[in-house]
Specification:
The complex is a heterodimer of chains A (about 500) and B (about 375).
Chain A (H helix, E strand, L loop, with lengths): L8 E6 L3 H12 L4 E4 L29 H13 L3 E3 L2 E8 L14 H4 L5 E7 L8 E11 L3 E3 L12 E3 H11 L7 E6 L2 H11 L6 E4 L10 H5 L2 H16 L3 E3 L2 E7 L6 E6 L12 E4 L2 E6 L1 E3 L2 H5 L4 E3 L5 E3 L12 E3 L9 H20 L5 H24 L15 E3 L4 E2 H10 L5 H8 L12 H9 L21 E2 H5 L18
Parallel strand pairs in A: 1-2, 1-6, 2-3, 6-19, 8-15, 9-10, 9-15, 10-11
Antiparallel strand pairs in A: 4-5, 5-6, 7-16, 12-13, 13-14, 17-18, 20-21
Chain B lengths: L1 H11 L4 E5 L14 E2 L8 H19 L11 E5 L2 H16 L5 E4 H7 L9 E5 L3 E2 L2 H11 L4 E5 L3 E6 L5 E6 L2 E4 L3 E3 L5 H7 L7 E12 L7 E4 L1 H7 L6 E8 L4 E8 L10 H14 L7 E12 L6 E4 L6 E5 L5 H17 L20
Parallel strand pairs in B: 1-7, 3-13, 11-18
Antiparallel strand pairs in B: 2-6, 3-5, 4-5, 8-9, 9-10, 12-15, 12-16, 13-14, 14-15, 17-18
Helix pairs in contact in B: 1-5, 1-9, 2-9
Classes of the chains: A alpha/beta (about 500), B alpha+beta (about 375).
Protein name (chain A): Oxidase
GO molecular function (chain A): oxidoreductase activity
InterPro entries (chain A): BFD-like_2Fe2S-bd_dom, BFD-like_2Fe2S-bd_dom_sf, FAD/NAD-bd_sf, FAD/NAD-binding_dom, Metab_Enz_Cyan_OpOx_G3PDH, Opine_Oxase_asu/HCN_bsu
């Protein structure tokens, strides 16, 4: 805790998954005052999602590998002075002092102020933030460990009940031990699919097939990255063995191109894809099922950072991640990031980056070289795992031909019910040549999810077929609310301390 | 929007037009606006004349363009919280009526008929049936398309210089991709109109005046008019660089309620200002208490092209033969676009001007002019 209630924390960590936990406990153990904010009631993030106590699951760890690493972080958190603010939905981070913007000029920070900016982390509390009170946490440094969300590519029928996100299906399983159906096809692209299929099968579901759009052979092209990351081989072998045991078939270079059913999923059509992910005519096969778990990998959740102007980089699989320096620093001084925000890489990488960031923030605050050996070791571990993640990402990048499986009637944006046909019309007839203009002219991405579901698809359609080999996510700087905020919460934000009375509304002429 | 209107009316007058933009269609202030077509906030004078002509033209355009532009003649409602405010509104409306604006006083007890969810206890207001709204980005895109083959779109190309003859007259523009030749060049660069004028070697003091719009989750039609408090008019007319906010609340065809409008001169800075959001939320929930329980899902900033006397620059620039200006409309560019386009087309084609453009002279700020 800071020395007094009005002092800012040394560090505010946003996200209590692997990266955030590691960053928070590391910084606290090095003597920093730390606040850890997360929207969930408990720590662990998406990866270590586990049932609430009330459900009484005896062994949540049965669904996780690597559980001891999380259990250790949790123990360190309990022993630490970290102020854990659960159920806090962070909607913005702003700079508090220095330039007179945000909440205005602050005075009286004395010696502390010379150490740089103070950040305000704005959150709302409550189950989904709807009835919450606004909370402002002030801190000298911010560590963004906000993780990722699942990337979806639309296809005919994807809005039918029974179609769930692959990551979502796993999250349901982990948090409540609920299955989305009895006979579940798992489809999309990315290493997560194997993990999802084996957890679903282990929990008792029948999984007739895993449909992977890319070819897995590509990993063989990166033997060095694999050899340097033996644990990934073990993981793959574990999933592979589980799938064999449950008689799950893996079909590569294929996609679910249509879902059948009236009220809910009854079957899916699986079609072979060419190298560009174009469906090959006449290869469609129907598979009966009552649910489809589908996902195309994960995309970094970086709205808080891009709203602050942090620089980004395109990743090998066409998402946008934060561009980070050797010590996990973003391009905005005082703002750090770890884990999936810097590119999808998994829980182990996230832990290493969290620890690295926590150590580096401490070194920065003390203003002197600090634990340099440890920092170098963490950097080596990070670089090795990043190398593997990039190789894998390149393998699962959606190829441009996937838009061929959209009919003009397919809803691309489900919040605003915008079809592929309307987006194509905006591109060809109205001159929308980029994702932002597509959004302006069609409303795709203006709804509740703010483009998280349809963003990739809109970009690909805007770019036109064949032109774009890789899809790039739309810039996030035009959606500065990371989560919806009730107007009552906005209205009760603290008034600025230094505002002159002559700037009050209606009296400035 | 202004550029699209200039292109449309010029093409209709038989000219061939190339529209050059460094971004996409509606990528600047148009795409960040609410699409207000207002007469209610304008005092009698040249801008109101322009607005009244535009109101007519927008009605005609709306008949011709597809319904997708979401033209809605929904009317505006200006409310006052106290008797003093209501008296100011009454005087203001009386002046406007002489200039041709329709304005009807709405007593306190009848406000509910127009807007059932307004806060109780307001002193009264004025209803302006001529106020309307369009979806500005779609309106601009469809207007360009309706202009037909005479208009050629060159998007993603930035003008980096003007081509001139030996005696200083304009003969085209230069972009990174090459030269484009034209006898006339129209500066419709909006908030960046001052920069464009500098390329032509002339001074036009256009400054960006930032505004934030708060967008709520989609709702059923609970706000029917464009509703704003009496302070708004004073804020629009203010010369202050400091932050001024006055809630303007309206529903949209698509469902979200839009809440504007803040004004501050901070350059081209999109940084989120929590103080702006706080004030907008306070004022909007004061007008419509139910909004307190509604969630905002997005906010965005845009830059109004501001000229010191709040009037646009429209017409030929006598300092550079062949150069015309159509910028500096502040927050009213979408509303004033058709009349501006018509004036520019007439200036180019030599037709009779529908109104006097003396007040919009681009040289009125020049030190020696």
């Amino acid at each position: 805790m800071p020395a007094s209630a009005s002092d800012p924390y040394d560090l505010a960590v946003i996200g209590a998954g692997s990266a955030g936990l590691a960053g928070a406990v590391t910084a606290a153990e090095l003597g920093l005052s730390v606040a850890l904010l997360d929207s969930s009631p408990q720590t662990g993030g998406q990866f270590y999602r586990h049932p609430a106590q009330a459900i009484g699951a005896v062994r949540p760890e049965a669904l996780h590998h690597d559980w001891p690493a999380f259990a250790e972080l949790r123990r360190r958190l309990e022993r630490s002075e970290v102020r854990h603010l659960s159920g806090h939905h962070v909607w913005a981070v702003t700079k508090e002092n220095g330039d007179g913007k945000g909440n205005g000029e602050r005075k009286g920070d004395g010696e502390r102020k010379e150490r740089g900016d103070v950040w305000a982390v704005h959150a709302v509390t409550g189950a989904d933030g709807a009835e919450g009170q606004p909370v402002r946490v002030r801190a000298r440094a911010v560590l963004l460990a906000t993780g990722a969300y699942e990337r979806q590519l639309p296809f005919p029928g994807w809005t039918l009940p029974g179609v769930v996100g692959a990551g979502g299906a796993q999250a349901m399983l982990k948090s409540g031990l609920v299955l989305p159906g009895k006979r579940i096809v798992v489809a999309g692209s990315g290493p997560l699919l194997l993990a999802v299929a084996s957890s679903l099968a282990a929990a008792g579901a029948q999984v007739p097939a895993v449909i992977e759009a890319s070819g897995y052979l590509g990993y063989a092209r990166h033997p060095r990255a694999l050899a340097a990351n033996p644990q990934k081989l073990v993981e793959a072998a574990v999933h592979g063995a589980a799938l064999l045991r449950h008689r799950v078939r893996l079909r590569t270079r294929s996609a679910v191109t249509e879902v059948h059913g009236t009220d809910r999923v009854e079957a899916v059509t699986v079609t072979r894809l060419d190298r560009d992910w174009r469906p090959v005519r006449g290869t469609g096969r129907r598979i009966a099922c009552d649910a489809l778990a589908v996902g195309h990998g994960l995309a970094p959740q970086i709205e808080l950072a891009t709203a602050l102007g942090c620089a980004t980089r395109p990743t090998a699989d066409g998402t946008t991640a934060l561009a980070l320096g050797g010590l996990q620093e973003t391009s905005v001084p005082g703002v750090w990031a770890a884990g999936e925000t810097g590119g999808i890489g998994g829980a182990q990488l996230a832990r290493a980056e969290g620890e690295l960031a926590g150590t580096a923030v401490a070194a920065g605050l003390y203003g002197r070289p600090y634990r340099e050996g440890r920092i170098r070791a963490l950097q080596r571990r990070r670089d090795r795992m990043r190398g593997f993640a990039e190789a894998m990402a390149a393998r699962h990048a959606p190829a441009a031909g996937w838009t061929d499986w959209l009919t003009d009637a397919t809803d691309v944006c489900r919040c605003e019910e915008v079809t592929a046909g309307r987006i194509r019309e905006a591109v060809t007839d109205l001159g929308a040549s980029d994702a932002h203009t597509v959004k302006l002219l069609t409303r795709a991405g203006m709804g509740w999810c703010q483009g998280r579901m349809c963003g990739t698809a809109a970009v690909c359609l805007a770019a036109g077929e064949g032109q774009l080999r890789r899809a790039v996510e739309p810039p996030a700087e035009r959606r500065p609310f990371a989560v919806p905020v009730p107007l009552s919460a906005l209205a009760s934000l603290d008034e600025p301390t230094g505002t002159r009375p002559d700037t009050a509304p209606g009296t400035d002429h | 929007m202004v550029g699209a209107a200039c292109a449309y009316f010029a093409a209709r007058a038989g000219l061939s037009v190339t529209v050059v933009d460094r971004g996409p269609v509606a990528g600047g202030t148009t795409g960040a606006g609410e699409g207000n077509l207002l007469v209610s906030d304008k005092e009698p004078g040249p801008e109101l004349e322009l607005a009244l002509l535009s109101t007519e033209l927008w009605r005609e355009l709306a008949d011709m363009l597809p319904p997708g532009i979401e033209y809605e003649p929904k009317g505006g409602l200006v409310v006052a919280s106290g008797e003093a405010g209501l008296r100011v509104l009454r005087d203001f409306a009386a002046g406007q009526e002489k200039a041709g604006v329709r304005a009807e006083e709405v007593p306190a007890e009848r406000l509910e008929d127009l807007e059932p969810h307004l806060a109780p206890g307001l002193a009264g207001g004025f209803h302006y049936p001529q106020d309307a709204q369009v979806m500005p980005a779609l309106a601009a895109a469809h207007l360009l398309r309706a202009a037909g083959d005479r208009v050629c779109l060159r998007l993603g190309e930035e003008v980096i210089g003007l081509l001139t003859t030996a005696d200083g007259a304009v003969r085209g523009v230069r972009t990174a991709a090459g030269e484009m030749h034209a006898g006339h060049v129209v500066n419709a660069a909006g908030a960046w109109g001052g920069e464009f004028a500098r390329l032509a070697g002339v001074e036009l003091p256009v400054l960006p005046r930032r505004g934030f719009v708060l967008v709520t989750e989609p709702l059923p039609r609970v706000v029917r008019h464009k509703v704003y408090a009496a302070d708004y008019v004073a804020d629009v007319a203010s010369d202050s660089a400091a932050l001024g906010t006055s809630a303007v609340v309206e529903g949209t065809a698509a469902g979200p309620v839009l809440i504007g409008a803040s004004r501050e001169r901070v350059g081209f800075d999109r940084t989120l200002s929590t103080e702006v959001l706080r004030r907008l939320a306070v004022q909007a929930t004061a007008l419509f208490p139910f909004l307190a329980g509604v969630r905002a899902i997005r906010t965005y900033a845009g830059f109004r092209p501001y000229l010191p006397d709040h009037l646009p620059a429209i017409g030929p620039d006598p300092r550079v033969p062949g150069l015309l200006h159509a910028c500096g409309h502040e927050g009213a560019g979408v509303g004033l676009a058709p009349a501006t386009g018509l004036l520019i087309a007439r200036s180019l084609g030599g037709g009779e001007l529908p109104l006097d453009i003396g007040a919009f002279s681009p040289v009125r700020f020049a030190a020696d002019g």
